[in-house]
Design brief:
2 copies of one chain form a homodimer. Chain A has helices spanning 14-29, 41-48, 57-74, 89-101, 106-118, 127-136, 141-148, 151-166, 188-196; strands at 4-9, 33-38, 174-177, 180-183. Chain A has 200 residues and is an alpha+beta fold.
């Protein structure tokens, strides 16, 4: 049986970006399937009473330095978009819709949205910029934004977020391997150890 | 010049315990001086608006599993005392007083208090148990509790905690090496990398 790594993420979460830069290669290395779970971080925070660390000024300042240290360790680009934290409802609806209806575009779409925020530092809330970014990556911006407006897509994102809360999530990224939950990109080494273990 | 690792901790913090199990050997390995900074976590939370992760039930449950994973990785004992989070005001006053007035007892006193909570799972708020624990470790419980009641000691703990907040701390443990701040026992690998670096 193929093992899986479930990956709950929101493209508005900088730690989710860092995890995304590492997980596909890690899953491949251990012959595991990466199961992507786009969910809305704002919805998780609302349901659990948790909040973004950036809400506390000293913690927010430290958080940036901390994430930048990991980015250096991983050798990946990292910046902060203006207006953080951004409202990612439209982006996560797009990803939910693409996963449901245009699955072949999913990986490219996740990647371009993550890079838009965390590599190029672009605030994703302006629709013109978003269209340009999607189009520039060879994706059909009109079709993707239309998907984001579909009722089935909106409902699916809501249900995926609720399911995440029911499963015990309180922040992102969160990974599951063999039923074990790992919260945070700073726990990728434990994800790797779990994949290395003989529990398969 | 000897390099230093500053270690801000409260014995009521399980992550501080895990850091304490690793830092003395790490500092020694790199020829650095471990500078212990007892402070009151409750005071830091009050000043910064931060709060214990255990205040959120799903996060609290995960936190225990997460800390237990690190304890297994380090090969050190780990349990939870009943009544967590405990009021550690008296304990931290004892450590502050010992550091000021009986410095030769400091290391043993820190160790016995940490182990009381996190190895033996004893709630530290009962004075009889606390006396027994200190006495059992060969420490003079009467003298230590008298120190905890001294005005200069109470004031010193308050000032150390305020200084920590002014320095940007919002949680414990927090370490500084070469002016770089590292929050959390899960950042000990970055502390090690800093000690390995050529910034000395």
């Amino acid at each position: 049986m193929t093992r899986s790594v479930e990956f709950y993420f929101d493209v508005g979460s900088p730690a989710s970006w860092l995890a995304w830069t590492q997980l596909p290669a890690m899953a491949e290395r251990y012959g595991a399937e990466l199961v992507n779970k786009p969910v809305l971080l704002g919805g998780i925070f609302k349901a659990t009473g948790n909040n973004t660390p950036a809400a506390l000024p000293p913690k927010g300042r430290y958080l940036f330095r901390d994430l930048a240290r990991f980015a250096r360790r991983y050798g990946v680009p990292f910046t902060f978009p203006p207006g953080f934290p951004a409202n990612t409802l439209t982006l996560m609806r797009i990803l939910t819709g693409v996963q449901m209806h245009r699955p072949d575009d999913f990986g490219a779409c996740v990647d371009v949205l993550f890079r838009m925020l965390w590599q190029y530092g672009i605030n994703p809330e302006d629709e013109t910029t978003l269209r340009d970014t999607l189009g520039g990556a060879g994706l059909d911006a009109d079709a993707l934004l239309a998907l984001a407006g579909q009722e089935d897509v909106k409902q699916a994102l809501k249900e995926a977020t609720n399911e995440a809360v029911e499963r015990g999530l309180f922040g992102l990224p969160t990974m599951f391997v063999d039923g074990e939950m790992f919260w945070g990109q700073d726990r990728l080494d434990f994800v790797r150890e779990q994949l290395e273990s003989s529990d398969a």
